[in-house]
Specification:
Two copies of one chain form a homodimer. The first copy, chain A, has 148 residues and is mainly alpha-helical. Chain A has six helices and three strands; from the N terminus they run ααβααββαα. In chain A, strand 2 and strand 3 form a beta hairpin. At the A-B interface, helix 1, helix 2, helix 5 and helix 6 of A face helix 1, helix 2, helix 5 and helix 6 of B. The first copy, chain A, binds a DNA duplex (30 and 30 nucleotides) through helix 4. Chains A, B: GO terms for molecular function: DNA-binding transcription factor activity.
Chain lengths: 148, 148
DNA sequence: CCATTATCATTCAGAGTCTGAACGATTCAG
DNA sequence: CTGAATCGTTCAGACTCTGAATGATAATGG
């Protein structure tokens, strides 16, 4: 119980390091996909669309943890790029059903390539064993948090 | 070379997972330290101050990767809380030298405690071995990136 | 010693991102 | 058929952060 003596150790925390490294990774990734006229949330949205069937903007907002009004502007941009398709649901004409287009899939593929390239930079100082251990741990955390 | 066939795999990327998990960790941590009237950057600033000797706002801005004008407002708030001390450097009276006060150290300790509590939630699904492997890998990435 | 130039902290306007409250259109419930 | 609920959209505004002034101080070079 010598908490008094022990250093605060905030930086030694997994949460703190996930935060700082995640912020850095996000910045770097954002720089890379800027070339495709995409922001981080655009990539997140395309990823969400790629993982499930066609989905309404409302549901997508919930899945992304974001306000529906934000989905509108993100979808506007992706639609202008030709990356997604907006179709009125015939069963419920209030709903706009979003689908990734072929061009959207290509774009997402380029994003993934950029991320893989960044991965190599990030993990350059790790041994193969450490990399797979990291991937495994992050995978479990991701699944547990219900993230894509 | 069957890249064509392979799924894009953005979500399987270390960078992507660091980004999403880091964002989540940041949100959760921000909620916890809200009780102390602190934002994420306040904790980052106090951490930076706790790791080195007294430092000017200019240098701190560089270390934090942030505009000097932002350091002003962050320091204003921390000073109002009594967490830091602003002293004019007698050798160079343009400089404001920042120091963590005793109360600041206590506050930072509470932040660290909050982070440790969050750590337990986050890593609940991991075995002890996986946790230490994760800590080791994150430690290496952190050091390589020159982060605290 | 003085004048110029550079550096520091600060202020302020504004860009960028995101939310929440409207609103019209559509659907659902009774 | 009427009222309530839901969808997408718009819009004002909160929040965070940056970059360009500004004034004070220091360094530099005649």
């Amino acid at each position: 119980m010598d908490d008094v003596k022990r250093a605060t150790g905030l930086p030694a925390t997994v949460v703190f390091r996930l935060g700082t490294l995640g912020s850095l990774a996000g910045e770097r990734f954002a720089e890379k996909i800027e070339a495709y006229d995409l922001k981080l949330k655009h990539a997140g949205m395309m990823t969400a669309l790629s993982l499930g069937p066609a989905i309404s903007q409302q549901d997508l907002a919930a899945k992304m943890g974001v306000a529906p009004s934000l989905v509108v502007s993100l979808a506007d941009h992706l639609e202008a790029l030709g990356a997604i398709q907006r179709v009125r649901d015939p069963q419920d004409r209030r709903r706009q059903v979003l689908t990734l287009t072929e061009h959207g899939r290509e774009l997402l593929g380029k994003c993934a390539a950029a991320a893989r390239a960044l991965d190599e930079e990030f993990t350059a100082a790790l041994t193969p064993d450490q990399i797979s251990a990291l991937q495994q741990a992050l995978g479990i955390l991701t699944a547990q948090a219900g993230l894509p």
